[in-house]
C-alpha cells in the first residue's frame, strides 16, 4: 500500500488503525462492511467528490481487497483518477486497475484510452505509470493495444532514459505473453544497439529483453555478440570512478556483467578474431580479479560470485 503521510488521507490511516485494533474476525468484518457501505453511498450519492476524496476511498477499497475481501464497485472512480494531473491520484488509479480490473471488463476501452494518453505525455512520470500498469496487467489485450507504441518509445531518440528503461522491461513482459509483439527487420538492429546506450539502467533492461529475444530467434539477433563483448570489456576495464553509481563492493556493474555473459552463452565463440580476443581478455581479467582477496571481510566479492558463475558456463 502507498505510504500514508501525516498531511493526507487521515481517514485511511484511521480505518487501517481500526482494523488492526479489532479483537476478532467478526469485529473486522463488521468494520469493513460499515466502511464499504459508507464508500458505496459516497460514490453513488455525492457528485461533488474531488480527486483527493476519490483517491482516499479507492485506497480503502484496495486495502480491503488485500485483506481478502471481494470488491465489486469503485472501478469507474479509479478509472476517473487516471485523468488527474496529480501524481498521487493517477498512481492510485493505476494501482487499483492493475490489481482489480479484469481484462474482460467493460471499462477496458476507457482504460486503454487513458493509458494511450499517458504514453503520449511529455511528463516522464505519467509515461512510466502507464508502462508499469501495462506490464502489471501483461495480458494479450495489452499487447494488442500497445504493441506498436512501446517499441517506438523504446528506440526513439527523444525518449528519456528512465522511460526507455521502463519501456524495455514492459516490452519484455508483453513478449512473454505474445511473442509476435516484437517487430523484425530494422527494429532488430535498433533494439540490439541499446546495448551501446550511455545509460547503464537502459543497457541492463535492454540486456534482459535481448536475451529473451535471442532465445526465440538467435540468428536474427546474432549482431548483439560484438556489442555485448564491447560493453563487457568497458565494464571490466572500468575504474571505480567511471561507474561509481553502479559499483558494488569495488566491482563495476557486476549484475550487468553477468547478464552480458548469459547473453553471450547463447552463441558459440565469435568468429571475428578481434571480438574473440576482447572476450578472452575480459574472461581472463574476471578470473584474475576473482583470485584477489576480498576487500570486505563480511562478504565474498561479487567477482568471486561471478567466477562461480563462469565455472557453470564452462
Automatic annotation (TrEMBL):
<protein>
    <recommendedName>
        <fullName>Clathrin/coatomer adaptor adaptin-like N-terminal domain-containing protein</fullName>
    </recommendedName>
</protein>
<dbReference type="GO" id="GO:0012505">
    <property type="term" value="C:endomembrane system"/>
</dbReference>
<dbReference type="GO" id="GO:0016192">
    <property type="term" value="P:vesicle-mediated transport"/>
</dbReference>
<dbReference type="GO" id="GO:0030117">
    <property type="term" value="C:membrane coat"/>
</dbReference>
<keyword id="KW-0813">Transport</keyword>
<dbReference type="InterPro" id="IPR011989">
    <property type="entry name" value="ARM-like"/>
</dbReference>
<dbReference type="InterPro" id="IPR016024">
    <property type="entry name" value="ARM-type_fold"/>
</dbReference>
<keyword id="KW-0653">Protein transport</keyword>
<dbReference type="GO" id="GO:0006886">
    <property type="term" value="P:intracellular protein transport"/>
</dbReference>
<dbReference type="InterPro" id="IPR050840">
    <property type="entry name" value="Adaptor_Complx_Large_Subunit"/>
</dbReference>
<dbReference type="InterPro" id="IPR002553">
    <property type="entry name" value="Clathrin/coatomer_adapt-like_N"/>
</dbReference>
<dbReference type="Pfam" id="PF01602">
    <property type="entry name" value="Adaptin_N"/>
</dbReference>
<feature type="domain" description="Clathrin/coatomer adaptor adaptin-like N-terminal">
    <location>
        <begin position="29"/>
        <end position="291"/>
    </location>
</feature>
<keyword id="KW-0472">Membrane</keyword>
